Automatic annotation (TrEMBL):
UniProt keywords, alphabetically: Activator, DNA-binding, Transcription, Transcription regulation
Pfam family, one: LysR_substrate
InterPro entries hit by this protein: LysR_HTH_N, LysR_subst-bd, WH-like_DNA-bd_sf, WH_DNA-bd_sf
UniProt-listed PANTHER family: HYDROGEN PEROXIDE-INDUCIBLE GENES ACTIVATOR (PTHR30346:SF26), TRANSCRIPTIONAL DUAL REGULATOR HCAR-RELATED (PTHR30346)
UniProt organism field: Shewanella surugensis
Domain HTH lysR-type: 1-58
Name by which UniProt lists this protein: LysR family transcriptional regulator
The keyword DNA-binding appears for this protein: yes
Length: 279
């Protein structure tokens, strides 16, 4: 009799379903089913009766459960007695630039709380990884996409500028306006195209790569910038955000993962974080 089989049996008994047991054990449903079938064959008993919403334990399962739980607790004690740490659950997470440190940190915190003993490695989204946080249009044909955030880009200008009192800005009003130029940025490329169509000159004041630097430069009066309407940006003193008339500058950001990995416990756990996020 394998200890793993008893562990999976205990999980099914506690959770009331094969699928829920697979999630908490971070294994596939067939692995749970095979373990239960092995126990039933070994003991010549039936442990669970399937129904529409899960499984019901039999009287044999009721008898086995306290013994399995006792063995599990002793096994856990032995494991920790001779092991410095539990085996980590490895996750390589690809992260695009311009996500915002505050919301990304909170998102990672939620993943760490969801997955016990998580060992997280952050990489560029183009590197080999288990999942990626990217723009919707960056998703490949072999991937699935779960939306997380929608970023609306607006014009950030210093509060000291006369234009700060306006409710909206027209593209023609951007002519020769000093800009904090940030690359790469798809939204900024769309704005520059619109300016070119109106024969409006785009003037570079500074060239940077990080959003966090951009709004700090705007707040000090150095120039304007195209920025997402994140809460921390809207709350920055010394600057304001204004929509640009007739321009829909929106980015859809979410989780991308290989389609053939959709039902693996690790992917399922991270998808649940996306669906139940609070930030």
């Amino acid at each position: 009799m394998e200890l793993r089989s008893l562990k999976y049996f205990q999980a099914v008994y506690d959770q009331g379903s094969i699928s829920a047991a697979a999630k908490v054990c971070f294994v596939s449903q067939p692995s749970i089913t095979a373990a239960i079938q092995q126990l039933e064959a070994l003991l010549s008993i039936t442990l669970f009766i399937r129904h529409a919403r899960g499984v019901l334990p039999t009287s044999a399962a009721d008898k086995l459960y306290p013994l399995a739980k006792d063995i599990s607790e002793h096994t856990h004690s032995i494991y920790h007695l001779f092991s410095d740490a539990p085996k980590p659950v490895s996750l390589r997470l690809g992260i695009m630039r311009s996500l915002g440190a505050k919301r990304m940190s909170f998102f990672i915190k939620q993943i760490a709380e969801k997955i016990k003993d998580l060992e997280l490695t952050l990489v560029d989204p183009e590197e080999p990884c288990d999942i990626r946080v990217v723009l919707a249009h960056s998703v490949t044909n072999q991937e699935r996409f779960v939306p997380i955030w929608q970023d609306d880009y607006q014009l950030a200008i210093p509060m000291s500028w006369p234009m700060a009192d306006q409710k909206v800005v027209k593209v023609v009003e951007l002519d020769a306006m000093p800009f904090i130029h940030r690359v790469p940025c798809d939204a900024l490329n769309k704005l520059k195209e619109a300016m070119a169509n109106h024969a409006v000159h785009f003037q570079h004041r500074a060239n940077i790569r990080t959003i966090e630097y951009a709004w700090q430069l705007v707040s000090t009066g150095i120039g304007a910038a195209l920025l997402p309407n994140w809460q921390e940006i809207k709350e920055t003193e010394g600057m304001t955000l204004l929509p640009i008339e007739d321009l829909n500058l929106v980015k859809h950001i979410g989780l991308a993962y290989k389609a053939n990995k959709e039902n693996t416990p690790l992917i399922v756990a991270v998808k649940e974080v996306c669906e139940n996020r609070v930030y």
